[in-house]
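Schema walk-through. Below, the input block comes first and the output block second. Nothing else is stored per chain. Lengths vary across the set, and this one has 62 residues.
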Amino acid sequence: MREYELNHARWRKSSFSDGNGGDCVEVADGVPGVLPVRDSKVAGGPVIVVGSAAWAAFVRAV
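--- output ---
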């Protein structure tokens, strides 16, 4: 399993966030080849790392 340095990742919240603690996700930019994803309400919680191509396919599908 590969580990990624995310301590200085630039996280951005989903544009669908309602600002009132609603369900939303954050993604981190600047990690080559992958897209880290986390629950925006649990910033210190687990992170799912998705390959860039898989993320692009997911976004196209939804």
